[in-house]
Amino acid sequence: MSSQQPAAEEGEDAISTAMSGSGEGTYDSDQELPHLPADPPFDLNNFPFTFEHTSDTSRSMHIEPDSDPSKSPSYEWDGESITSSITAYREENGRTYHAYSDGSYHYPNDSVELERLDWQYICLKRLFNGKNYFAPWSQEQPPKRVLDLATGTGMWAIEMAEEFESSMVVGTDLSPIQPEYVPPNVHFYIHDARLDEWWWLDPFDYIHVREIFPSPKLA
């Protein structure tokens, strides 16, 4: 004996009843679902991007320059600074995870994840209409020093170094997962931006960071 179900209302309630009910309310693949109005298409090309700075005119902010930028510490670049403890990745459920500051970042660092990061970068760049930055940099006014925190596979840092050949670009990450052959003006360090001491005494003209939601303390 089957129980009679109340008549569903139009729209979303009708869809919910058809897909989740049993017996007489079971969804029939040959039955047409009620038409729901679709959202209007989102035109990214004409989206009014605005980057406006608002401040309280009653307050002023002054940043003191470094007392002696010439005393910046010298560090060994790239692979020369990598130790065996950094590459002793933790393995779990068939995936590998960073060893430096183990546990501070919850995503893997294996080849599958690197491919995902590269595709993520490609998608974001397309979303930004091919732009890597929205700051007013140009070949006539290039940034002299650029820092990319949580650089990942280093694609953003590498492209910035290629675009601004006179700039020095630094990328930091928990894992040495960046390419071996890169432009001479880009360098990568192992560094935890959340916990490690701020190394850099020379000021940066541009500091870039994106997609850091797995690291809430940095966000």
From TrEMBL:
Pfam families in alphabetical order: Methyltransf_23 (PF13489)
InterPro entries, per the entry: SAM-dependent_MTases_sf
Region (Disordered): 1-78
One Gene Ontology MF term: methyltransferase activity
Bias (Basic and acidic residues) ranges: 53-69
UniProt record similarity statement: Belongs to the methyltransferase superfamily. LaeA methyltransferase family.
The name this protein goes by in its record: Methyltransferase domain-containing protein
